Amino acid sequence: MTTDSFYDRVHQVVRLIPSGRITTYGAIAAYLGSKGSSRMVGYAMNNSFTAIPQVPAHRVVNRQGLLSGKAHFGSPTLMQQLLENEGIKVIDDKVVDFKILFWDPATELDF
Asked: Which CATH number is 15's domain given?
């Protein structure tokens, strides 16, 4: 599988995350059959800002609910602002109620 096709598959999954929910790099990697490739999912998220249709990259956080990708949003607060616009509370760069808001593609998607 080429990097581009992996990135495209990651972007497709991320586009399915409902507003007001979050998932993790690892959950996406596991869903795509690439458990242990969380970092590659992160690279795909960093590459998502020019993708069409848009990819809601702000809905992907690390396994602890931390906004580990916030540096790639052009503003240090933009990722948090986007999440808060969807009703997700963030304190100290961490999603509050992470376990409640967690969206697992392995259980939420049928394909």
From this structure: 1.10.10.10
